[in-house]
Amino acid sequence: MNTETSAGLAKVEVIRYDETGHSVATGEYVPSEQEFTVCVNGEFETSLYCAPHRVKSLVIGFLVGEGMLDHEREFVAIDTDLRHHFIRVTVSEEAEKRLGARAILGPYGRLAEPEISRKVDSALSLKPEAIQKLAAAFKRLFLSLKSSERMCYLAAFAQSDEILSYGEGFHRVNAVYRALGELIASGVKTDNRIALCNFGLTKQITLRLARAGVSFAISAAPPSNAAIELANASYLCIATTAIGGQLSVYSSPWRVL
Fold first, then answer.
1. Structural domains of the chain in order of their starting residue, each with its CATH number
2. What is the DSSP letter of 256?
3. Backbone dihedral angles phi then psi of residue 200, each to the nearest 5 degrees
4. Which is nearest to 103 in space by CA: 91, 112, 94?
5. What percent of the chain has pLDDT over 90?
6. H helix and E strand count, the chain
7. Quick check: 235 pLDDT over 60?
8. What is the full DSSP assignment across 143-201?
9. Which region, left, alpha or beta, applies to residue 155 given φ > 0 means left and ψ of -120 to 50 means alpha?
10. Residue 256 in contact with residue 215, Cβ under 8 Å?
11. 39 C-beta neighbours (distance < 10 Å), count
């Protein structure tokens, strides 16, 4: 694999038209996306479509979001073969048992969505101005990224006054996985953290945040009705700052003082 691709970029041919309608063929670097096979403790788990950069954080975040890992000590090792798009992950015995139980509980096998116990507690609350401040800091983070890193979707995790990790991707859930993985890899627990994203939340993404014990989600667009229902059941507060300076709270409003 060449340096361009392993760095998350691939060169493609593009036809450019000028104002007069004349065209010219040229080369352009675009984000590279490939299918990676993920095996956990020697067993096939899933395939992930993603850019090849920061694969470790993506996979760790996937394991957290799927309810397989609770803490960084449960993650043992990762072996990434970028040439053959193969990722071998080793997790602790405790995490492996949790993975096995998840496969049994799921009605459609390993990729199903079994019931999980609520992990979000009721400790964290924020003032409206604190939410607006975090949203502004998240916007500055996005604008500070290099153009090659500024993909379609960006997610981050924060505590009350500081952004702790971020992740980007073509897919919203991949951005969340990367940001989760960066948090866990640095030894920071996900409990009572604040998620930030430049997209609206779906039920799928909200479920993964709830599994991680996240208390707040600040988004740039409204969530789906299914996401709101799940968030309320999980004590997860979803707020948006999308329309002007107005703050909208969609779930667990008691968290906003």
1. 1-32 (no CATH), 35-105 (3.10.20.10), 128-255 (3.40.140.10)
2. B
3. -80, 155
4. 112
5. 39
6. 7, 12
7. yes
8. HHS-TTT--SEEEEEEETTEEEEEEEESSHHHHHHHHHHHHHHTT---TT-EEEESSPP
9. beta
10. no
11. 15
State which amino acid sits at residue 61.
G
User: What gap in Å lies between CA 229 and CA 215, rounded to an integer?
Assistant: 15
pLDDT at 7 over 70: no
Task: Calculate the average pLDDT of the chain.
Answer: 83
Residue with tokens 């995790």: 157
Distance CA 95, CA 100 (A): 9
Count the Cβ atoms, other than its own, within 10 Å of residue 225. 10
What is the C-alpha to C-alpha distance for residues 37 and 49, in angstroms, rounded to an integer? 9
Q: 28 pairs with which residues across the strands? A: 12
